[in-house]
Design brief:
The structure is a single chain. By secondary structure, the protein is of the alpha/beta class. It has 3 domains: about 350 residues, 3-Layer(aba) Sandwich (Rossmann fold); about 140 residues, Rossmann fold; about 220 residues, Pyruvate-ferredoxin Oxidoreductase, domain 3 (3-Layer(aba) Sandwich), CATH 3.40.920.10. The protein is about 35% helix and about 15% strand. The protein contains 27 helices and 27 strands. Helix 18 links the parallel strand 19 and strand 20. Helix 5 runs parallel beside helix 7. The relative contact order is 0.07.
Length: about 750
């Protein structure tokens, strides 16, 4: 028996992705005897003209049932009357209907970054966000719905879309958004298939095992020429152990399903490529993946320029104008048939007509995006390759680290270069050969390991195959007479840190020629690993870096995001902020990093050179806490003591020596006591101790003073940032956090330098 429950949706607080849903949800139990029975029951309950709640969430069991439900939801969205009260079941009073977000969630423009004299029509809206937020910004405006199942590290993308739905959001064409959480990632892909079959613009957010579980459906979506876009937080697959962090195992395992595949290096590119992938997909009837590194990009806050809604509306176009409803009874189309020996091969090969259109569609999407925004993308992004003798090629976030390392090596006289692969499918074989054919050696970095392949991992194999064809003048290549030596290695598996030292080691290995290791790894202690020698400080000139040590649950990671937003939106700086923690997180050590500069921060590696060290809990440090602290830097620590002498007395002698030698400034405050006194909700007492350090940050750094703003103006900016992250919990919580910040600013004390010098 199926039980359908439709009621009025909650109008206030957004619903978190993966949690029990509010009213406005239908559920199909998985225990139903058969998918076919479910399909019939759905038909009976929801005839083509029958009611179905737009804007609601839906949880469904069997796959065919999910596909059917998606088509029904799409039908309703097409045929709902604009005047019908059922079309908008949620209050629109506090929602910007054009953006699908709460009206008070405004985007602050930074005057000195937002030049009115830009030669580009749509330079973007200055903001700070992570890669997941950049994707959500685009998708809740251009799409009509999503089917998604929560899985780390893509969950924040799904929760962001669902929050827009629960707040009554509509897209740029005033269509209510639809969110559905089925029983698994496989079912969520089936939902997207059904939604697209009925002519809807749909998306999905997934990662790791979830993506692999979808694989069966991914082939079907491609075969039916459904131009959907799925967003992937690329993650290592469980093999000898579970890892929820960055790896390319998952995306490379589905590289053969007939989808286009784009890779972002940072938050800006994640949002931009979401739009480029969508335009290309719909112009060639081919689905696309938009991939970013799990955690390392999905959860890293950076300075970005968000695409303007006006630009997105023009660049993507209305769904009704771009998509075909294959379920339109007035114009029947046959799809998903059974084909035997006489016809299957004909249909399979005939699909190459569509795939021949993918490259031109991407070229057009890249070109138009650059013309309108000024941000240039291509199949490959070469850097200083014109005269390069040694080139490193790879995919994802560590390629920006490679660019600054190349600059460093150039200063030392080494003709280094690098190439970032933006588009892996279709693979740009001709461009690869053209870029690499004249250099002495090439190194391929890959965030995975396929040990039973005798020729290397996926990217390495593609490059070697391209050169093989070029040697023989096949596949449209101009014949070449030599191939550079190709080295390859595994880097950054499971979010293992990839440092400038690792990249330098790879270039050193290339220069050894025949004596170099054909295959290697970096970043670990192993017989195959290249040793680290030189590990330079490659932060931007004049940049500021901070490292914090805390415990999961103290609110420190969120505080770091708030600081980044203030530095970017209030003080007009470029920022990069990200955490490091294990899958267990709460109650165990957490490290967080922040870099502030006057230009885009390319170095995506853990900070070994820092200006400020924050110790939220000294027990969270497993090694030397002062490691990497520059001369004249500062330390802020949690202390229950109010007397500077007592604080100084309790510091171990060997740390005292380091503090004196480096002339480190030492500050302290009882963040725990402040949180206990201020938090009006008991369960926030622990979390609020982290936000107190924001006040300390404002006091210890020069940004507030150098901005020319008074204290009231600074706190106004702080309150806006706090409202972004805590506004959904109510005004009292926002004000409690603001009070914590102000007290942290007032009550932070310094251990007198003379006390440090004389003891």
């Amino acid at each position: 028996m199926l039980i359908w429950w439709f009621g009025k949706a909650v109008e206030t607080e957004p619903v978190e992705f993966g949690l029990p849903q509010p009213a406005g949800i239908c559920t199909v139990p998985q225990t139903v005897a058969s998918s076919y029975t479910c399909l019939l029951l759905l038909r009976c309950h929801f005839p083509p003209t029958g009611p179905l709640p737009a804007g609601g969430a839906c949880c469904v069991g069997p796959v065919s049932c999910v596909v059917q439900m998606a088509m029904q939801l799409r039908w309703k969205s097409i045929h709902a009357s604009p005047e019908s009260p059922e079309r908008y079941p949620m209050s629109q009073a506090t929602v910007d209907p054009k953006l699908g977000v709460p009206a008070d969630e405004e985007v602050t423009r930074v005057p000195d970054q937002d030049s009115a004299e830009s030669k580009f029509e749509y330079p973007g809206i200055p903001d700070t966000c992570d890669g997941a937020e950049a994707v959500v910004w685009a998708e809740i405006r251009i799409s009509q719905g999503t089917g998604a199942y929560p899985i780390t590290s893509s969950t924040t993308m799904g929760s962001g879309f669902n929050a827009a739905v629960q707040n009554g959001g509509v897209n740029l064409w005033d269509e209510p958004l639809i969110f559905m959480e089925p029983e698994s990632e496989h079912s969520s892909a089936s939902f997207c298939e059904g939604f697209a079959l009925a002519g809807g613009r749909v998306t999905n957010f997934t990662s790791g095992q979830g993506l692999v579980l979808m694989k069966e459906v991914l082939y079907t979506i491609a075969g039916k020429r459904l131009p959907v876009v799925f967003h992937i937080g690329a993650r290592a697959l469980t093999s000898h152990s579970l890892n929820v962090h960055a790896g390319h195992d998952d995306v490379m395992s589905v590289a053969d399903v007939g989808w286009g595949m784009l890779f972002a290096r940072n938050a800006q590119e994640a949002g931009d490529l979401a739009l480029i992938a969508r335009r290309a997909a719909e112009n060639c009837n081919t689905p696309f993946f938009n991939v970013q590194d799990g955690f390392l990009t999905t959860h890293t806050v950076e300075t970005v320029r968000l695409p303007e809604p006006e630009f997105m509306k023009d660049y993507i176009g209305a769904p009704a104008d771009k998509l075909m409803n294959l379920m339109d009874t007035e114009n029947p189309v046959m799809t998903g048939t059974v084909q035997n020996q006489d016809s299957y091969m004909k249909g399979k090969i005939a699909q190459r007509w569509y795939y021949d259109r993918v490259t031109p569609a991407l070229e057009e999407a890249f070109e138009l995006f650059h013309k309108k925004t000024g941000r240039k993308y291509d199949f490959l992004l070469p850097y200083r390759c014109e005269d390069a003798e040694y080139i490193l090629i790879g995919i994802g976030g560590y390629m920006e680290t490679t660019e600054v390392t190349v600059d460093y090596l150039r200063e030392k006289g080494i003709k280094a270069g690098c190439v970032t692969v933006v588009c892996f499918r279709p693979f740009p074989m001709h461009e690869i050969v053209t870029l690499l054919k004249d250099c002495q050696a090439v190194t391929v970095f890959e965030r995975m390991d396929d040990p039973l392949s005798s020729t290397g991992n996926h990217l390495t194999r593609e490059i070697k195959a391209a050169f093989c064809d070029a040697l023989t003048g096949q596949m449209g290549h101009e014949p070449i007479d030599r191939v550079p030596r190709i080295f390859h290695g595994a880097a950054g598996l499971g979010s293992r840190d990839v440092r400038p030292a690792d990249i330098i080691a790879a270039f050193d290995n290339m220069q050894k020629g025949q004596d170099g290791q054909d295959y290697f790894c970096v970043g670990i202690d192993h017989a195959l690993a290249l040793g680290r020698t030189d590990d330079p400080d490659l932060r931007p000139s004049g940049g500021f870096s901070m490292r914090g040590h805390s415990v999961g649950g103290f609110g420190s990671v969120t505080t770091n995001k708030v600081i980044a937003r203030i530095a970017g939106q209030v003080f007009g700086k470029d920022v990069q902020a990200y955490p490091k923690y294990g899958s267990e997180k709460k109650g165990l050590p957490t490290t967080y990093y922040l870099t502030i500069g006057d230009e885009h921060i390319k170095t995506h590696s853990e900070l070994e050179f820092i200006d400020l060290l924050i110790l939220n809990d000294v027990n969270a440090i497993l090694a030397n806490p002062l490691a990497g602290l520059v001369d004249g830097g500062a330390v802020f620590m949690q202390s229950s003591h109010s007397d500077p002498g007592e604080v100084w007395k309790r510091i171990p002698q060997h740390h005292k020596s380091t503090i004196r030698e480096k002339k480190v400034r030492l500050y302290f405050c009882d963040t725990v006591q402040i949180a206990r006194e201020v938090a009006s909700v008991a369960d926030l007492q622990m979390r609020m101790q982290g936000i107190v350090t924001l006040g300390a940050f404002l006091k210890l750094t020069p940004y507030a003073d150098s901005s020319g703003m008074n204290d009231d103006q600074v706190m106004e900016g702080v309150e806006k940032a706090l409202r972004k992250y805590f506004g959904k919990r109510g005004e009292r919580v926002v004000q409690d956090n603001l009070t914590c910040v102000k007290r942290g600013y007032r009550e932070t004390q310094q251990v007198p330098p003379e006390m440090i010098a004389t003891d």
